[in-house]
Design goal:
Largest sheet: 3 strands, antiparallel
Helix content: 55-70%
Length: 365
């Protein structure tokens, strides 16, 4: 029987005891001991939470956040296919991100887990619309960054200005990927992100971008809101009205026509160094390479003065200009091209992935 129960059941005795000095001292001591125990337990639990949070940052977020930033930067870099090293493989970065998440499930919340499972499940299905798998990847990366921002702000871990900027860019990229049907078609637009006012890639813009997620894909309202956001981001640029419209159009549509005689000439002889080229032309150049690879396999006539069946001596291959070698490495990275190094020759062969991509996205180019 507890002291409290005893006192309440024996009212007279209880009142008598409460009037004694020694009993009041005992109760005070017991209350102080109970409070001390409660405080110690609370502080212990708080320390455990803090230690768990520090461990979460150290083991998970401090590893995965830089990888996500690298993936975005390399996949959307203006220098991709030119000065960016040709052996950089973004697929390896993507796999490292997924592996880091898989190995640290105890540190992730339900939103990250759900987005991760969607990406993993995509491995078992074809991407029939051309963009949803890419969009799901970006969604996963964004959800990780968003949770990192929330935890950092709540526990004053670090200044999140750069992380908020990256979160904005991820959601912009996702919308462009949806509008232009995949990473490749979205590249022309997102690679020009340097035109954005970086100071406006802030919390307010992030909230506006998050609100887009509530709108139906391809709806007029979603496109209207997205266009307003983009307009605000380039409000301080030096572009004239015509240049702005051209710039914005690329974020909603990929439809590059070849109508320049110089461009046509360059695409007709891939072995010639095209020199400095635009992002749009680089996309066409890569498509021409894939087109020639496809036609080579099926003995279709190729209107390219330099065509050699994509079989080179090692010396010839080493002397190819960077634009062509980078195009080869680009398609190799995508799994569309296989490079066979045999004795003194180097042979380039289109893969089944490359054939599917050509037939679905490039033909009749």
């Amino acid at each position: 029987m507890s002291i409290l129960v005893f006192l309440t059941s024996n009212e007279v005795l209880g009142l008598a005891l409460l009037k004694t000095t020694w009993f009041r001292t005992l109760l005070t001591a017991l209350a102080a001991a109970a409070f001390t125990q409660w405080l110690n337990n609370s502080l212990t639990k708080e320390r455990e939470r803090e230690n768990k949070l520090k461990e979460t940052f150290k083991v998970f977020y401090d590893k995965v956040i830089p990888e996500i930033q690298d993936f975005f930067t390399i996949e959307t870099d203006m220098r991709k296919g030119s000065s960016l090293k040709s052996d950089v493989d973004v697929r390896e970065i993507r796999e490292r991100i997924l592996e880091t998440i898989s190995n640290n499930m105890i540190y992730i919340n339900s939103e990250i887990h759900e987005a991760y499972r969607k990406v993993i499940t995509n491995k078992y299905y074809d991407c029939e619309d051309g963009f949803s798998h890419d969009a799901d990847d970006i969604t996963l990366f964004y959800v990780v960054v968003e949770e990192y921002i929330k935890l950092s702000q709540k526990h004053a871990y670090k200044d999140n200005k750069s992380d908020i900027k990256n979160a904005c860019l991820l959601l912009i990229w996702k919308n462009v990927v949806i509008n232009c049907y995949g990473y490749d078609m979205a590249y022309a637009a997102i690679s020009k992100r340097h035109e954005f006012d970086s100071e406006k890639l802030n919390k307010e813009t992030l909230e506006r971008l998050k609100n887009l997620e509530r709108e139906e894909v391809d709806s007029n309202e979603r496109n209207r809101l997205f266009r307003e956001i983009l307009n605000d981001l380039i409000a301080n640029s030096n572009m004239n009205t015509k240049e702005r419209e051209k710039f914005l159009k690329e974020f909603f549509d990929y439809n590059i026509e070849v109508n320049d005689s110089g461009a046509i000439s360059k695409l007709g002889n891939l072995d010639l160094n095209p020199g400095e080229i635009t992002v749009e032309f680089r996309g066409m150049y890569r498509k021409k390479v894939l087109s020639n690879l496809y036609k080579s396999k099926y003995n279709i006539e190729i209107n390219d003065f330099s065509y050699n069946g994509f079989i080179y001596t090692k010396q010839e291959f080493s002397e190819l200009h960077n634009e062509l070698k980078n195009a080869f490495n680009y398609w190799k990275e995508k799994g569309a091209l296989r490079i066979e190094d045999e004795n003194e020759t180097v042979k380039l062969i289109i893969t089944a992935i490359g054939e599917d991509y050509y037939e679905e996205n490039v033909y009749p180019f």
